[in-house]
Structure formats: C-alpha cells, structure tokens
What does this fold into?
Amino acid sequence: MDDIDRKLMAALVGGGRATLAALGETVGLTAPAVHERMHKLEASGAIRGYSALVDPEGVGSGTAALVFLRLDGDRVAREGLEAHLASDPCVLELHEVAGEDCYVAKVRVDSPQRLAEFLGELRDFHHGLTSRSSVVLRSCFERPLLWPTDRPAPVRSPTAGRSRAGQ
It folds into this structure.
C-alpha cells in the first residue's frame, strides 16, 4: 500500500458515493486506474466493504451502551458467547480485552428497558457471565477509521458544536 492508496481510502471514507472520476481527481489518477486500485484494495482486504451511515435514533436505536462482560468458562464457552453476540444485531462491536473484564461490547437498543432485557437474556443463556454497563448520555462524535480530522465527524450529537445559549 502506498501513499496514493492511503489517499484514495481516505477519499472513499470521506465521500463513499464519489464517482471514480472524482476520486481520480482527488488522488491524481484516471478513473480506470482508480478502479484498478480499488479492486486491489478490496482483494487484499484493506477495503472490506461499503456502507451507509445510519442515524441510530432514526432507526429506533437511540440508546447506546458500553457493556463490559466477564465470563467464567473455557474456550468453548467464550466461542459460544462470541457467536451469540455476533448474531445479535444490537451488538455493533465486540472487543476481547485485557484486564478485569473479558470483553467490551458496544450495543444500541431502543430503550434502557430493552438494554436490561438484553443483559438478562445474556446472563440466562451464558452461565458464569457477569456484566456492568455504562449507558451513553451523549455521543460527542463517532467517526470511521481514516475520517479526515479537518472535517466534522459524520455522526455527531445534535448539540455538538452549538453553544448552550442556542439550545
């Protein structure tokens, strides 16, 4: 991967609907050359796919939480928990971590009550699982990897960037 590939990926992250010609102008290549580089980046796994940025509240998932999970169990139990969480659409991210907990999950649901139900279901299904959660009060920003820091983050709190007087 060279500097042009990095610049191309940053341009895609910042404007995923850009045409090949527009991307070419950004990185100084022709549209066919951009297409070839994108194909190589996809084949190498550097680009894993393309997606839309969805407003969580707009799709009924306005409650976000970070859930810290600890599981007393062997590899089979951990693999079962990972598979369970991977199959649940409210779990957006799952990270195995070092320290007191085994995992940190980012979860989005429609309400705190649904979060409580989700956690209860997990504990019922996975014996030896303990959890603690931090409910997100406000997301200051969320941005994808390689998002240009000189541009506003694509997912921001409705109040981010506004003064208190303007609220």
User: Anything to note?
Assistant: Residues 159 and 167 are 7 Å apart (CA to CA).
